[in-house]
């Protein structure tokens, strides 16, 4: 650990350093071996930008600024010492870690054919994020060469003797969930800095050729730390080199509201907590309380499409859209209940219930690595496949609607509880449906890779979901096995009961006065309670 003005480094070794704005730290490496031709020096901080430069007074073409920055030093013949300068942009001290990584003459040079960014040779990965996706881009690499030689031309041809033979493997690494500490980041970013450790710890998401654009999109996971890096590979020499890793939490540490520590809005917590209460009731009692089940399913069905509609066509704020969605969902649920009461169409209700379960099932399918297959980048292929999988559920269970309803109420109702948990504790299971919503709302989300972490926290919450779903389905199957599959048509039952009372004079209900007369009599009775007792006049005692 160093906080003085001089930082002595060894090749391949990390050193922690405290940086400030006023006194630059001089980083030095001595006794560099003669077979080393290139050194990539890099420094990492959690949230504050640092300046790394070749000179004590940095210029645009000789320095880089950011939380994850690096410089490439092309060594001259006989050179055995390298020097860089570090300082922070913040007035307070910034904790950072630095490393220098050596490469030989046959190793490719990351960013060696840079034409887009300020540095002549730029090994950095540039990252931008929104609440929806993360975009990384980097400069193409060049072939390695010996000390003192001229670098290979970047545009001399596209054959196997040029940089066009290089391949780029993009890696992703997730930090531990619900952990935003600096020390955790620094310890894990070391696993994504050198070629061997990147391959051992990271997940390879894709491979790019020189014909592809050197930019990639990923789905955004606010509050979840993730590290990206790129390994450039020379297939002729079977040599590799790593770019400078970059990290993000897809959120701001500095914001007072909706920062990395408190991402869920109050309105979101209230909405999904109430939704979870209804879902938990439906999970265990949905089939018995048939109208409540219809209200729950109608709320989901109507609320989802209404939220998509108002988000697409209006510029309303999130809280307003959420309130309107809740109102629309309640109206949709009541409409489904009213439709059942008036027409008694079990087939229509079961189709909607099966469709909701099918959409959840299809979302789970595309939540797996299957969803990142290149063929599903095409929106037509994706939506046709997604809809086919979703429609498969109501078709398969068309002959056993009671089982379909119990399965839907148990699985969907328990998932509502998981969504509520996600408002308070990070879990990747929320992205089962959130990624679907993102794809509906954003035209370009199809280009994003949707891989998510699955760690201890997710296994625990997945177990909770499984136990709730199995318990709800089992309880309902045991309770309803001796009951009629569905309640009778309520409107026809009401009509038959009314006709029976009007024709059967022996039925006591036949002699019940009309509703208007009963209300009038009740009001008269209440009025009498407040009347004073009137005197009966003079009373004469009886004479014996």
UniProtKB/TrEMBL annotation:
<dbReference type="GO" id="GO:0043069">
    <property type="term" value="P:negative regulation of programmed cell death"/>
</dbReference>
<feature type="transmembrane region" description="Helical">
    <location>
        <begin position="270"/>
        <end position="287"/>
    </location>
</feature>
<dbReference type="Pfam" id="PF25992">
    <property type="entry name" value="Ig_TM7SF3_N"/>
</dbReference>
<feature type="transmembrane region" description="Helical">
    <location>
        <begin position="320"/>
        <end position="341"/>
    </location>
</feature>
<keyword id="KW-1133">Transmembrane helix</keyword>
<feature type="domain" description="TM7S3/TM198-like">
    <location>
        <begin position="273"/>
        <end position="477"/>
    </location>
</feature>
<feature type="transmembrane region" description="Helical">
    <location>
        <begin position="412"/>
        <end position="434"/>
    </location>
</feature>
<keyword id="KW-0812">Transmembrane</keyword>
<keyword id="KW-0472">Membrane</keyword>
<feature type="transmembrane region" description="Helical">
    <location>
        <begin position="348"/>
        <end position="368"/>
    </location>
</feature>
<dbReference type="GO" id="GO:0005886">
    <property type="term" value="C:plasma membrane"/>
</dbReference>
<protein>
    <submittedName>
        <fullName>Transmembrane 7 superfamily member 3</fullName>
    </submittedName>
</protein>
<feature type="transmembrane region" description="Helical">
    <location>
        <begin position="380"/>
        <end position="400"/>
    </location>
</feature>
<dbReference type="InterPro" id="IPR042502">
    <property type="entry name" value="TM7SF3"/>
</dbReference>
<dbReference type="InterPro" id="IPR025256">
    <property type="entry name" value="TM7S3/TM198-like_dom"/>
</dbReference>
<dbReference type="Pfam" id="PF13886">
    <property type="entry name" value="TM7S3_TM198"/>
</dbReference>
<feature type="transmembrane region" description="Helical">
    <location>
        <begin position="459"/>
        <end position="477"/>
    </location>
</feature>
<feature type="transmembrane region" description="Helical">
    <location>
        <begin position="294"/>
        <end position="314"/>
    </location>
</feature>
């Amino acid at each position: 650990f160093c906080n003085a003005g001089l930082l002595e480094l060894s090749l391949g070794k990390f050193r922690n350093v405290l940086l400030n704005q006023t006194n630059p730290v001089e980083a030095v490496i001595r006794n560099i071996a003669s077979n080393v031709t290139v050194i990539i020096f890099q420094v990492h901080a959690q949230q504050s930008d640092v300046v790394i430069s070749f000179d004590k007074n940095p210029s645009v073409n000789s320095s880089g600024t950011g939380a994850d920055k690096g410089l490439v030093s092309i060594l001259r013949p006989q050179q055995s010492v390298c020097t860089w300068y570090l300082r922070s942009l913040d007035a307070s001290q910034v904790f950072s870690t630095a490393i220098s990584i050596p490469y030989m003459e046959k190793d490719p040079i990351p960013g060696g054919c840079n034409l887009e960014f300020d540095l002549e040779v730029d090994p950095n990965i540039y990252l931008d994020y929104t609440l929806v996706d993360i975009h990384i881009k980097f400069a193409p690499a060049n072939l390695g060469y010996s000390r003192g030689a001229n670098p290979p031309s970047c545009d001399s041809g596209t054959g196997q003797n040029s940089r066009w033979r290089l391949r780029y493997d993009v890696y992703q690494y997730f930090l531990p969930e619900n952990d935003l500490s600096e020390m955790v980041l620094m310890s894990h970013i070391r696993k994504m800095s050198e070629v061997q450790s990147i391959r051992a710890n990271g997940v390879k998401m894709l491979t790019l050729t020189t014909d592809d654009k050197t930019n990639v999109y990923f789905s955004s996971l606010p509050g979840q730390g993730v590290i990206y890096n790129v390994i450039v590979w020379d297939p002729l020499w079977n040599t590799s080199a790593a770019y400078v890793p970059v990290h993000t939490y897809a959120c701001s540490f500095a914001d007072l509201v909706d920062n990395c520590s408190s991402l869920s809005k109050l309105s979101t917590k209230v909405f999904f907590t109430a939704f979870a209460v209804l879902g938990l009731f439906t999970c265990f009692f949905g089939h018995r309380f048939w109208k409540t089940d219809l209200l729950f399913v109608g709320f989901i069905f109507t609320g989802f499409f209404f939220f998509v509609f108002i988000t697409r066509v209006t510029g309303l704020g999130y809280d307003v859209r959420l309130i309107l969605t809740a109102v629309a969902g309640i109206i949709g649920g009541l409409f489904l209940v009213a439709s059942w009461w008036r027409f008694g169409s079990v087939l229509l209700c079961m189709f909607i219930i099966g469709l909701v379960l099918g959409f959840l099932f299809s979302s789970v399918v595309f939540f797996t690595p299957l969803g990142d297959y290149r063929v599903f980048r095409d929106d037509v292929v994706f939506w046709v496949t997604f809809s086919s999988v979703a429609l498969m559920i109501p078709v398969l269970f068309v002959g056993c609607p009671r089982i379909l309803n119990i399965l839907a109420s148990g699985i969907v109702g328990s998932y509502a509880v998981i969504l509520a948990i996600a408002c308070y504790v990070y879990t990747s299971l929320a992205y089962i449906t959130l990624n679907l919503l993102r794809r509906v709302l954003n035209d370009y989300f199809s280009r994003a890779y949707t891989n998510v972490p699955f760690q201890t926290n997710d296994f625990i919450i997945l177990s909770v979901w499984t136990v709730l779903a199995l318990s709800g389905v089992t309880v309902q199957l045991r309770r309803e096995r001796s009951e009629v599959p569905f309640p009778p048509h309520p409107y026809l039952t009401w009509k038959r009961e009314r006709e029976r009372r009007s024709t059967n004079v022996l039925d006591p209900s036949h002699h019940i006065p009309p509703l208007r007369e009963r209300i009038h009599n009740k009001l008269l009775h209440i009025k009498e309670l407040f009347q004073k007792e009137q005197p009966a006049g003079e009373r004469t005692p009886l004479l014996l």
